[in-house]
Protein: Homoserine kinase
Amino acid sequence: QKVRVKVPASTANLGPGFDSLGMALNLYAWIDMAISDHTSIHLIGDQMNGIPTDKSNLIYKVAQMVFDKAGVSHPELEISMYSEIPLTRGLGSSASAIVGALAGANALIGNRFTTYELFQIASKLEKHPDNVGASLYGGIIVAFWDDVQAESIRIEPDPNLEVLVAIPAFQLSTEKARGIMPQQVSMKDAVFNLSHSSLLVAALSTGNLGMIRFAMKDRLHQPYRASLIPGMQLLLDESEHHGALGVALSGAGPTMLALVDARSKQKEELQAFLQGTLANEGIQAQMLWLK
Ligand code: HSE
Structure:
């Protein structure tokens, strides 16, 4: 028996919702999994170079965790993965691998675990629930992980909400982008983020797209991470004047994300502004319109 899982990419934080907001994007990874008499792992596509194809592979290890938890003795696995999701760019590629591995292994044992249980395992593995929550449930996810449990509520994205991503040609590890953040923040910045994140969730759940431009502001992570992505601060400051509802660093970056009203007449202008601003810094970026 072979199972095939299709998992969406995701963008985390959406600006102020550091480690707590995530949104699935229509860019996908496919994972095939079957119990076999010996383990073999096939990664399809150039961008997979360097990813292990032995038993240290993330998908293999996560799948074995599911079998362990279910009391099934370690089966050998045949795994294939094809992914459209660029790696290490802030689009949740590792979360999609984790979610795909969990869902695939769970399907092989007759779905013994609920989606909620898989969400607990995934959040524990990632240590933040934003990307895995979005990849697992789809849509927009508001979530916490407190080192013990994860809870979330899904919001159906407004049909007029479109996403433009500018994916720089360079990779940026989440570890590096988390390492640059301070251990302490001021009460003022905490309140700033709390109020903006709450307003953003309210705007997204009520379809008040006009409020996004006020809400999508952050003082917890983006000011620190801006030094890692040339051009980022200018994009944060100016994109609204070129038709974005709001703009943010996608996850830990380096991808930049703009939320756009599908009815906007400034889409081409916005795309040119994002691409041009990064190009002025010597950064080639792939531009994708997503939902
Ligand atoms: N919320 C996480 C971060 C997402 O910003 O570091 C990265 O995977």
Remarks:
- The pocket of L-homoserine is lined by residues 12-13, 18-19, 128, 130-131, 174, 178, 221, 251-252 (CB under 6 Å).
- The longest strand covers residues 21-36.
- Strands lie at 2-12, 21-36, 40-44, 76-83, 140-145, 150-155, 161-168, 246-249, 256-261, 285-290.
- The chain has a mean pLDDT of 97.
